[in-house]
Amino acid sequence: MPSENTKTNPYSFLRFALSVFPEFWMFQLLASLCLFPLSRLVWRFVRALTAKSGAVTSANYLRFLASWRFPALLALLALLIFLYLLFELLAPLYLCNALLKGEFPHFRAALADGLRSLRKLATPHGFLFLFYLAVLVPISGVGFRIHLTRNFYIPKFISEVIESNPHYFLLYSLLMLFLLWLGYRLAFFLHAVLLENCTPRAAYRRSSELVRKNRLRILKELVLLFLFLTAVRLLVALFFQFIPMLFLVSKESSLLDRAAEAGNGLELLQTAESRSFLLYRFAAAFAVLLGNYMRAMTGLLCNSYFMLRFTKLFLGLSREESLQPATLPKSPRRKLLRNVMGFSVFLIAFFSFVIAFLYAPLFVREQKAKLVAHRAGGYLAPENSLAGIAASEAAGAYAAETDVQRTLDGYYIINHDDSFKRLAGVKRTPPSMNLLEIKGLVLIDPNFPATTYSVPTLGEMLDACRGKEKLFIELKGMTADKKTADDVVRIVREKDMVSEVVIISLSYRIINYTETYYPEFETGVLLFAGVGNLPKLNCDILLLEEESVSNARIAEIHAAGKQIGVWTVNDAEGFRRFFDSAVDYIITDDLVMAREQREYLAARTPYQVLEDRLANFWDFLFF
To answer: What pLDDT score does 73 carry?
Structure first.
């Protein structure tokens, strides 16, 4: 006769949520409280290592790679990866294993087991797996990952080149297919290391063997589990975000009309209309905070349950028999933990009340970011053309960005690529041609096939900008050296336009030289990656690739008296994010979309503002 445990599924989602999820929530809180200060401590060591140059960036990394600081930095980053691996994968896996044996999951014991198991990965194959986990999994999107590198990415300026070149795109597609295959083969790697005591090399063979023999069963179970958990997430989003949003949107128009001039603080209590508006702000803040909190909680719940079911699947496959069901134990602290989790709702209400009173000083921000047209005119005109300057100025751009290279006979012309192959069908480079030869080229931008134009000189570009918009001059390519910096400074001075230009480059060495010897010029370093004290770099403006910009980094740069720009923003989400931040410059190709998104942000209701600004409020807890 079947036992009571087999009549109902002891591994059901509801049973898991009610019985043991509070323990996972408590473990998450513990992990957050531990990882945050430990991460800060490690990053302090990183900043100390880079103190000599201020920061290690994509613009000045070569000298750092040749010093003793580079292996020390790698060791610190490896330590940080080990810490996240311990808290996010190893300890939760041991918690799941305890549950599947019918034991109460003690997170202290799980942490101790996870800490001991780290030495198993201290082998060449183990470090290869860590590289795969920290770098390749975020790129491919397949496999267990750690939050430390969850935003690891291929910069957009590189991905755009890949997408526009068939050969690069083919190689990229093959790489992604390989990573998918590798993720498939490594699916049970950690389980084999931790639960079967395999060496990393043996764990790869073990994982490959299990997925090869059971591919259909694995595929069926994981697809069904994925669909179920996706449905759970959608239901939570429906009830805690979408429905409250519809209700508030239906009420806000009348409230906003009646209380358009409502103030803040005690002024809101003076009239019935203002009190209604205060209530609306409170409801909007509460709906946004609670909705995002529930979404984060549901994410933690679904991820924990997925780990449990995935571990159950591994144990069943490795034993080649059905895993005997064991009743999930009830948490002895379940009531206490539920009360603590319920207290979170009170905190959300308190934060919402504060937000309702202080809405304007906290969330009303003037859109100050200045638009810089990429390659002179962006999408409005052929790239790096004089027509682009006129088009970007007419579209309201504050400045235009362009690229300068030196010719064989010492003149300075405007061109982005290392050669003229893309625009003129000529494979020769600017330094290999004289000005007369370059002026004889007929350029055709693929985006404007009906328009032909010639290569402008730096002097012509400066004349086109005079009195209209600022010019960001990027010292580009093989001729980005001290001579180019000296000559560009001379040409700008001769035209009496020092205050109308900014000299920028991907080479920190050149910008450091320019800022040191020509301090009257504004200078900027273009970066797509960097660690350490970025504001210490010797320049006026730090121009960061958009994925590397955060509010903390913006505040740090401003606190040092420097400006920050972001490049190259060409999508609606990016415009909303950076217009809603404190960045000083946005370099873009799409000036039309930028204007539309700025108008959208200016017309937002308080609910929309709070949804945009508080979307990541709980990241400190659910990292």
So the answer is: 80
Cα(451)–Cα(445) distance, integer angstroms: 8
CB atoms within 10 A of CB 269: 11
| Cα–Cα distance, 614 to 608 (Å, whole number) | 10
Q: In 10 A of CB 486, how many CB atoms?
A: 14
Q: Cβ distance 287 to 245 under 8 Å?
A: yes
Of 144-153, 211-220, 457-466, give the range with the top mean pLDDT.
457-466
Has residue 46 got a pLDDT over 80? Answer: no
> pLDDT tens for residues 562-571?
999 999 899 9
**Element of type H or E holding 107:** helix 107-117
Examine the pLDDT at 326 and tell me if it is beyond 70.
no
pLDDT value at residue 190: 93
d(CA 512, CA 534): 13
Q: Are 579 and 596 in contact (CB under 8 A)?
A: no
> In whole angstroms, what is the distance from residue 378 CA to residue 381 CA?
7
The span from the CA of 208 to the CA of 191, in Å, is 12
Measured CA distances, 344 to 341, 412, 615 (Å): 5, 62, 17
- Would you say 375 and 383 are in contact if contact means Cβ atoms under 8 Å apart? yes
**CB neighbour list of residue 574: distance below 8 Å, 6 or more residues apart:** 546
DSSP-derived 3-state class of residue 149: helix
* pLDDT of 2: 38
Q: Say yes or no to pLDDT of 399 above 90.
A: yes
Q: Count Cβ atoms within 10 A of the Cβ of residue 260 and give its class: 0-12 exposed, 13-18 middle, 19 or more buried.
A: exposed
How far, in whole angstroms, is CA 480 from its chain's centroid? 30
The pLDDT of residue 3: 41
In a 3-state reduction of DSSP, which class is residue 471? strand
**pLDDT value of position 578:** 93
| Torsion of Cα atoms, 283 then 288 then 292 then 295, to 10° | 70
The residues with which 405 forms a beta bridge, in sequence order, are 413
